[in-house]
Amino acid sequence: MASDLIVARPEGLYCPPGDFYIDPWRPVARAVITHAHSDHARFGHEHYLCAEPGRGVLLARLPGITLDTLPYGQRISHHGVTLSLHPAGHVLGSAQVRLEHGGQVWVASGDYKVEDDGTCEPFEPVRCDTFITESTFGLPIYRWQDQPTLMAEIFRWWQSNAAAGRASVLYCYAFGKAQRILHGMLRHAGADLAMPGPIIVHGAMTGLNRAYAEAGVALAPTMTVADLPARSPALHRALVVAPPSAQRSTWLRRFGAEAIDAFASGWMQLRGTRRRRGVDRGFALSDHADWPGLLQAIGATGAQRVIVTHGNVPVMVRYLAEQGLDAQSFKTEFGDVDDVQDSGGDGAAPAEAEAEAPR
Ligand SMILES: [Zn+2]
Ligand SMILES: [Zn+2]
């Protein structure tokens, strides 16, 4: 419709009256960024706007950009469009973009999760006429266990491996997932910080961990391998948090051939994924809403019109249409880099699952 507040253009999602883009994938003059994952935040735009808590992680990913930030909930006006950013609960600084113009309210949610994970502002339902949603895990088979239960499982897995003198190598995405695990281990250990061994993080994670710590997020104490002598027995009790790209790397050898490994990702809910990744254990931990979470979030907006951007698009569009909503889709270039399905090595990598986090 001519009055639509957001339309799909070859460069990205565009607001015609405001003349700016949301998470554009080609270079533009003005980009509003929902969050710093690499498929939503790219180099090359002249001017960036993101939520204030996302400043540190966005600059860690895209150093040198021209960036303005906005506190959650604060309204600004641009070419007569009222814009505000609201927590999306996905990763630190993640935001839904609320636009109001000509009596209409639109919300573009970026990626989101409805469960509060303690490492970012929890998802805030925002009333709107039109809601733009992701659908990464938009199939009824996706139902997450709650975070405390998952963290307790990871902790117990680490404990039993350590008792057997074997390191626990946990692969996860370096931005978002890694910090949730560090926060979860801290919470689970309780006040006396009784851990089965040291937590060793891969170098790809230290910059982002610092950005989270500077934003006031409580993380378990960590070290890098350089902090321990080469033959330290502590290496065999360690929880090793590493990006998937470290799998089968020489970096891992120092933890011994008998190390146990696991993968943390929403895709681990599918049994075949764990086997394809060649790991001993899978934990279905995701930064995205599961099927009930997506439906809960969509319902809470009160929107009569819903536009689906990425993930299981046809399934979600059909389901929402059956519920009587005006449902459609936008073709976008957003992928699932944050819940890496397969990042190479076994030839099963989907095209959008690009490289791991920042160097
Ligand atoms: Zn994301
Ligand atoms: Zn996404």
State the shape: globular
Q: For the report, how would you describe the main beta sheet?
A: 7 strands, mixed
- Kindly name the structural category: alpha/beta
| Overall average pLDDT | 91
**Cofactors and ligands present?**
zinc ion
Compute the number of strand runs.
Answer: 18
Biggest sheet strand order reads 7-8-9-10-11-17-18
CATH topology of the largest domain: Metallo-beta-lactamase, Chain A
Q: Report the end-to-end length measured between terminal Cα atoms.
A: 43 Å
Any idea how many domains? Answer: 2
Task: Write a short abstract of this structure.
The protein is an alpha/beta fold and 359 residues long. It has helices spanning 55-61, 147-163, 177-189, 203-214, 271-277, 291-301, 313-322, and strands spanning 7-9, 12-15, 20-22, 30-32, 47-51, 67-70, 76-78, 81-87, 95-101, 104-108, 130-135, 168-171, 199-201, 239-242, 260-264, 281-283, 305-311, 326-329.
Describe the protein:
With 359 residues, the chain is of the alpha/beta class. It has two domains: 204 residues, Metallo-beta-lactamase, Chain A, CATH 3.60.15.10; 137 residues, Rossmann fold. Helices cover 21% and strands 22% of the residues. The strands form three sheets. The protein has a seven-stranded mixed β-sheet, with helices on one face. A six-stranded mixed β-sheet has the order 1-2-3-4-5-6, with no helix packed on it. The protein has a five-stranded parallel β-sheet with strand order 13-14-12-15-16, with helices on both faces. A hairpin with a 2-residue loop joins strand 9 and strand 10. The radius of gyration is 21 Å and the shape is globular. The N and C termini lie far apart (43 Å). One zinc ion binds next to loops.
